# Entry
Amino acid sequence: MTQTSLEILQHTFGYDAFRGRQGDIVDAVVEGQNALVVMPTGGGKSLCFQIPALERQGMGVVVSPLIALMQDQVSALSALGVNAAFLNSSLDMYQLNEIEELIRAGEIHILYVAPERLVQPRTIELLKAVQISVFAIDEAHCVAQWGHDFRADYLRLNVLAQVFPHVPRVALTATADSRTQEEIVNRLQLDQNAQFICGFDRPNIEYRIRLKANPRKQLLHFLSTEQSGSAGIVYCLSRRKVDDVAIWLKGEGFDALPYHAGMPARDRQQNQARFLREEGVVMVATIAFGMGIDKPNVRFVAHLDMPKSIEAYYQETGRAGRDGDASTALMFYGMEDVVKLTQMLAKSEGNEQHKMHERQRLNAVLGLCEMTACRRQALLRYFGEVLETGCGNCDNCINPPATWDATEAVRKALSCVYRTGQRFGAAHVIDVLRGSENEKIRQFGHNSLSTYGLGKDLSVDVWRSVFRQLMVLGHLDIDVGGFGSLLLTEKCRSILRGEESIQLSEYIKTKPERKSSKKFVADVAMEDQALWNAMRRCRKELADEDNVPPYVVFSDATLKEMIVKRPMNDSEFLCVSGVGDKKLEKYGEIFLELIREYEYQDS
# Structure
């Protein structure tokens, strides 16, 4: 007898009820509709296609971009008693043939496949020979040419609508602005009336953005005072920087590993496996790392360089706190990031329209960095969502920045850009304003300009802040010709004519932050720490035996609920969120015995 979606949710996955719009999405797909699902990381996207795949007749096919993600998902489903498999380049010919035979025999409930593998004629013919329940396209923003993780093979997924027109298709992503959503719907031929935009807010993440002073020192202070023993990700713009930072963090006593596309594939896979399966590992990476990472207890994501778009920032920071516990997204930025990213954009192979769009995205990130209002409101507004009041969980809400009347300083800055011919970057213009006597200024005769020395009263750091904010506000632009020269825009005229005043945020010298009072490691009462640690050790041993990450056995949230509820028998154990029939059968007695032991000790 076929189980209903709610029965599958309860008995297989161990959850009492659907969250948010999960139930609506599942119902739509089960009924055969094609759907677009935009849901925050950690919101439960996987259940939106896994449950329909199990309820409908046939095999569910999941298009997934990363081998590691497929392996984790298959391990997690297998632990729940679901027959799952994957087809990707990690398999040898014998393994490939074996899985294909299981598929033909109807033994596989859910199959994960890379887009490159799916569009091959051999795979299409294999799938045509069996009944398919649903196609799920995970990380669907890759379908869009404007998506920040664009992959060409995703564009060929329109074959699904052509060859399998009667099989429902569900596209899922955590990050897609309205333009990307529209392209996903059009390319995959999804139903216009089955779009589930479930909100972008991640209230458990505290957003902090800091100006670069000494970024390594700033990062070290954050890690040592707030994140000791926590798992986290540190993103860098270049591969060389990833290697250097990983070595440096190791030298500072952290269990740090590098990850970037220039490493041998085997080393990348080993490092990723360690990050997923061990506690307290810090992964230093380029954006090559992270898409689809299921580790739920990543406590922080730190950017040592400014991301190239709000979409990238949101996607990368969203890898923190999938379990719903307090987490931190920390970014360090500087003018050099803007110049470097602008130069990289100028050298890209995209057409002018693409470059213009990417430049707008870059400006949006800089705007987020320099703003004085609630950062979460700005993030959500970018994705078309309104937060009526400040969030109370970003740095600008916690410590609101002060502002000052910068009208006169701005006029001096803009005039100096004009008088130096709009041919120089901010550093040189600031030198002119401050009356520097360096060789470059004498060489170009800028010590004879009317603006020379007019800005001696302000420090270099204050002037840098002025120029960054003028770029955010649209009064200045950067020449993409490769030298980072500042250019005036039409918006300057009213200020230069004295028709407009302007307020800017005050520059505040970066100081070490006070140690946070938040409990990032566990949120477990002191009297329960012994049981908590014993459960984690037990979970790690079981995970090692099964060769899976610890969270595949039980998540931190499930362990915490066990501590609160203290189940004493099977029926009570099943009432813990995340415990289904298979996990009760496999792990129930082990954890019940552990809980009883500590319960008796406390009595």
Remarks:
- The radius of gyration is 27 Å.
- The longest helix spans residues 581-602.
- Residues 5 and 51 are 6 Å apart (CA to CA).
